[in-house]
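Worked problem 6 (solution included).
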Amino acid sequence: MPTPRLGVGVASINGRIYVLGGHDSAGGTISDVSVVDSARRSSRRAGTLALPTHGAAAANLAGRILVFGGASSSVHDVVQQFSPEAGRAHVIGHMPTVRADVSAVVVGRRAILVGGFNGVGPQADVWATASGKSFRVVAHLPQPVRYLRSLRSAPPSTSSAV
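Solution. The predicted structure is:
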């Protein structure tokens, strides 16, 4: 990576890994996008997001890199689409509410957004979107969570993280 980062969104497309936004080494929220080429073991700057963000989820949805929510000075609801060819992103929609520290996975033709933080507390609603423009609740977690992590690698805990 060109610079160290924390709280990034990550999506893969065409054999390349895109690292979107995050915190820089000074703790500031950034809009930088980098691309990692694992075959060449190299990385380079690939462009910028429309808005700086950290704690956003990213997904390759039908060949489009979408960045969901995140935060800068406050938590936001923006959905950005990053174009590797153009090297920039633009806002394509808004989530139903603000959400940062959210996780995304693609199932079939939909991105599923799980957990996160709305500026007040952890979230229980699980959203699905096929476009990044409209969302619907597809499940409710039995316990709201802010950060998701693998159950196999996580020690037993009484916290709200899974």
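Discussion: Residues 9-145 form a domain with the Neuraminidase fold (CATH 2.120.10.80).
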